[in-house]
Amino acid sequence: MKKYQKIYADLKSKIEAREYELEAFLPSENVMTKHYDCSRNTLRNALSQLAQEGYIQSIHGKGVRVIFHPQRNQSRLVLDGIESFKDSLVRNNQLEQQAKTEIKVFAEMIVNSKLEELTSFPIGMEIYYIQRVRYINDQALIIDHNYFRKDIVEGLTKDIAISSIYKYIEKTLNQKIVRTSWTIMVEKATEEDLEILDLEGFDCVCVATKYVFNDQGMMFEFSKSRHHPKHFVFSGQAKRNN
Amino acid sequence: MKKYQKIYADLKSKIEAREYELEAFLPSENVMTKHYDCSRNTLRNALSQLAQEGYIQSIHGKGVRVIFHPQRNQSRLVLDGIESFKDSLVRNNQLEQQAKTEIKVFAEMIVNSKLEELTSFPIGMEIYYIQRVRYINDQALIIDHNYFRKDIVEGLTKDIAISSIYKYIEKTLNQKIVRTSWTIMVEKATEEDLEILDLEGFDCVCVATKYVFNDQGMMFEFSKSRHHPKHFVFSGQAKRNN
DNA sequence: TGGTATTTGTCCGTATGTATC
DNA sequence: GGATACATACGGACAAATACC
Question: Residue B32: left (phi > 0), alpha (psi -120 to 50), or beta?
Fold first, then answer.
């Protein structure tokens, strides 16, 4: 592990362990560089990551303040835009709950003009189209529509789609999933939504649209996930630019 | 303006002007440091900001790839978690549309245990509570419930709440709004929601919960915004940690 | 009020490691 | 293997905001 990653991990764990209180200041950069025996640059690299994730905030002339203590054990499944379904379950400590994935469609397609408009993949490109339903405790919560570039996510199969496509991409294909760009909106439930999800009286679904990029900066996935509104939580951080 | 900010702004404008195509590479860091007559540190500071906003992605050993061209003229109002209502209108080029704000409640309160649980302000703290309804083209789209720390947002009035509280905080109180932490979920519409918002057949609203921090790392605002589901879009970027 | 020390912000230069071509 | 490009790390200098006496 890199030096700055060790420092990042150490500080993060101390914050999570409440070793530094909310609104308290970390030791000064000067003190910390001595403690970690590193240069100020390296320390600040670690700090900037923590700041990016919303753990701390540097205040000019004063110090570095702790502004966030993550909470565990939410009642709903909290998503953050980049994780796989499985990852979210783990982070939310809900793996003891029964999770299941059902494949409705597994197909290979060629992008036509309609698909181009939807996915923004170029016309003529070969893609996989996969439709899956996600269950927790036997309740259908999410309908996933995934479109993958075939040349990047080679050799996808039904079996892989049932377990974890992201794991396949990262472990087997050895590609890194780096970044997503997403939007969330609400749509009226379709016939299919009503059929598959037990909406418990709701007449709408939450639709998360995602564009996913690998470590080469290539978009290899477009997906629309239709979520049961009662079990949908999305969270994040935002920074104001000056 | 700082040197790295100039470089950031210059590169950003060039990307937006499509001077660099999607998936194309920027000139190498070496070339750019010469062009901008700066150190590699300074250039990388600028690049890291662009990466954070999802414009570029560095690829080890290859170069820095453009991965995003912002789009304009969405049909819905796109929010990003940190802007004020007014800011969003401007960014979405919808200021020519008629925007209006109505104050339903303007009150000073002291945090009790129930409010503490809701807002996470400590018991006994003095706060402002403001309930507002946001209209675009005479259609009620958002019900805002804002809670402000009175000691930080001093001197708030109804008149200010009708125009722009954020403008007051930044221009008059000279405080900077730096960061928000937010979550989004869907809730069944309440009586009040149905009364105020014309939900056009929807039976639910989008609820955005925000914790807002100033440049001192102090949380000074808690708010819940109940959005008309048909006119709600939330978008952002997420990065996967390794 | 003012000066000094502390703390973070910006910027520079250099060296070495690692991935890609 | 060599050249190129980004990643990590060290060190130093000065500016700007803040705290303290």
Answer: alpha
What is the enclosing helix (H) or strand (E) of A78?
A: strand A78-79
**What residues 55-114 of chain A have any CB closer than 8 A to a CB of chain B?**
56-57, 59, 62, 65, 67-68, 76, 78, 80-83
Q: Which domains does chain B carry?
A: 3-66 (1.10.10.10), 85-227 (3.40.1410.10)
* B37 Cβ nearer than 7 Å to chain C strand: yes
Which tokens hold the place of B162? 């009708």
Kindly state the average pLDDT of the residues A185-194.
92
pLDDT at B76 over 80: no
What would the pLDDT profile of B187-233 be if each residue is shown by its tens digit? 999 999 999 998 888 889 999 998 999 988 999 999 999 999 988 88
Strand segments (E) across B62-203: 63-66, 78-79, 99-110, 126-136, 139-149, 177-188
For the segment A155-175, what is each residue's pLDDT rounded down to a tens digit? 999 999 998 888 888 888 878
CA-based angle A62:A68:A74, to the nearest 5? 175
Q: What does pTM read for this prediction?
A: 0.85
Q: Which amino acid is at A232?
A: F
